[in-house]
Amino acid sequence: MTDLTTLPASYPALLEELKSRIRAAQVQAAFAVNRELILLYWSIGRDLSQRFAAEEWGGKIIDRLARDLQTEFPGVEGFSPRNLRYMRSLAEAWPEEEILQHLVAKLPWSHNVRVLDRIKDRPTREWYLRAALEYGWSRDVLVLQIKSRLHEREGKALTNFPRALPPPDSDMAEQILKDPYNFDFLTVTATAREREVERGLLTHLRDLLLELGRGFSFVGSQVPVTVDEQTFYIDLLFYHVRLHRYFVFELKVGAFQPEHAGTSEFSCARAGAVLWWNLLSRTPISRLACPHIKSLASCRRPCRRSCRA
């Protein structure tokens, strides 16, 4: 059995190789999702363009279509009226499937939208899309290069790029891993954003503890709690050393909804049933964090058991 205090000499190199391989696979998966998203948007835009031309649809049809799609796919921001109009513009700007497959679908939706907005002629649009793909520009860098009219200084030297995907360590690769349109497309928006909020709070754990006040100690995140052979996870768990109470934090995205309070109380009850090992500890208190509430520490809802304590 290998002593973990004396790792093999080849271990660091293997670890670095695996980390690099994992990151590359994550980026490839994100771009594969992005490709399907762009192809879907393009096909919707093509259908809209054809219907508008053949059946003389009015502009209000877009608003109705957006409303119906958002009813069927609640929370998916990609089907807004504004986005549907961009889909139509995308299909009309790139009617050929060849360039769609080999260039347009390789870039994030936000990149395509910025190019559609800021550039009117097709050759220049293509130039910036190819440059963004080659150098892995983020959306903001792309906009900056367009404003500086980079294509006029570089000429036509950058018109044909062999790269299939941007560099895995580029700004674009990092951005696409957090692209909200991809999350929307996969209908994992709320969960993903809650995890992002959780990671942000953990990154600034010291500031969070100061906001909560004296006596709080951090126990863990995504703490598993098993009740009746079912495992649930507490988003954030703290313990107050002076009050001898656990504090259960539930993170939610979007505006506050009444059912959030029920979820928070349920988490509190689960924690109380399992974390009762310390006889000095009193019943837990749950707190609910939503973006529309000013402070994490100011939003709290004790469960019914702790209200009587």
Based on the model shown, name its key terms.
single chain, 309 residues, alpha+beta, Trna Endonuclease, Chain: A, domain 1, 2 domains, four-stranded mixed beta sheet, 14 helices, globular, disordered C terminus
Task: Tell me what you see in this structure.
Helix content is 55%, strand content 12%. It is an alpha+beta fold and 309 residues long. It folds into two domains: 169 residues, no CATH class; 117 residues, 3-Layer(aba) Sandwich (Trna Endonuclease, Chain: A, domain 1), CATH 3.40.1350. A four-stranded mixed β-sheet has the order 1-2-3-4, sandwiched between helices. The protein is globular, with a radius of gyration of 25 Å. The C terminus is likely disordered.
Give the total of beta strands. 4
Largest sheet: 4 strands, mixed
Helicity level: 55-70%
Alpha carbon gyration radius: 25 Å
Number of folding domains? 2
Order of helices and strands: HHHHHHHHHHHHEEEHEH
Separation of termini? 51 Å
Q: Provide the residue-averaged pLDDT.
A: 76
Q: SSE layout and pairings?
A:
Blueprint: H1 11-55, H2 60-72, H3 81-93, H4 97-102, H5 109-118, H6 122-135, H7 139-147, H8 150-154, H9 171-176, H10 180-185, H11 189-203, H12 205-212, E1 216-227, E2 230-240, E3 245-251, H13 258-274, E4 282-289, H14 304-307
Parallel strand pairs: 3-4
Antiparallel strand pairs: 1-2, 2-3
Helix pairs in contact: 1-3, 5-6, 5-7
